[in-house]
Amino acid sequence: MQPNASPENNRTPEVEPTIRHTVAWRLTSVTALPDARLRVTFVDGTTGEVHMRAFLADPKLDGTVFEPLRNPALFAQAQIVLGATQWPNGADLAPDAMYDAIRERGVWVLY
Questions:
Q1: Which CATH number is 81's domain given?
Q2: Quick one: how far is CA 107 from the chain centroid?
Q3: In a domain, 33, yes or no
Q4: Cα separations (Å) of 103 from 25, 26, 75, 98?
Q5: What's this model's pTM, rounded to 2 decimal places?
Q6: Has residue 6 been placed in a domain?
Q7: Distance (Å, rounded) from C-alpha 99 to C-alpha 76?
Q8: How many domains does the chain have?
Q9: Is 102 exposed, middle or buried (0-12, 13-18, 19+ CB in 10 A)?
Q10: Mind listing the pLDDT tens digit for each residue in 68-98?
Q11: Between 21 and which of 26, 40, 47, 76 could a Cys-Cys bridge form, CB atoms 3.0 to 4.6 Å apart?
Q12: Dihedral angle sign, alpha carbons of residues 52, 56, 58, 60
């Protein structure tokens, strides 16, 4: 019986050329800002802000996946997952709606 091959010999070959997102609304960066805001950049270079203060203050969010985002420490953990903004608790935002609003007005204000 042969010993298992080393992991280095079983590496998946790198994809050439590098896979790039082809839809403009995929995010490439997200930064949490004070006052429940996000600074975002999309693959086509479009940048803008997402304002979530009024949205997060709404009592209708009590008991939802968005309620914990009222905690600034959790809000600051925004990250990109598959081209969209997501938080560790699973809350996420629709990148296509975000993109459309930012292209039109430079900001997406959630109510």
A1: 3.30.2020.10
A2: 15
A3: yes
A4: 10, 13, 24, 9
A5: 0.79
A6: no
A7: 20
A8: 1
A9: buried
A10: 999 999 999 999 999 999 999 999 999 999 9
A11: 26
A12: positive
